[in-house]
Specification:
This protein is 71% helix and 0% strand. It has 147 residues and is mainly α. The chain binds zinc ion. The site of zinc ion has 5 residues, from helix 2.
Amino acid sequence: MTATNHALTGAAIALAVKRPELAIPLAFASHFALDAIPHSGVPPGQFVFKKYFKIVAVDLTIAAILAVALLIIFKDHFWLVFSCMAVAAGPDGIWWFYRKNLEKNDKTGIDPISRFHWWIQWKEFQKGIYIELLWFGLMIFLITQLK
Ligand SMILES: [Zn+2]
């Protein structure tokens, strides 16, 4: 899923659970649960990092703007919201190191956690953007209810 949706989900978990010892591991686990839902993207092998980079940059910009807004709105829970957004969105950072593997659909040399992370994303397709938009709306709704 997009970094935006991972981060919003992390924020929603932080605000719903409020206990860091539960919220942070749940936010981390949410990354993999969300990746298991069919979502927007390009399947490995069709992935070209230079082409995809612009989309990643737009996604990260939206995620950063929303993160700043949420951290201002929920300043009483700043560190919990920040931590949960970071651990919910963070696992995709590993793909920077494995970008050549993604381009070639080559799993050699991939660590076991990333292998699982790769395997769990069984369905990435362009029309998955509609699923992403639905999830985005749901998370925004949940967060407004948790205020
Ligand atoms: Zn991921």
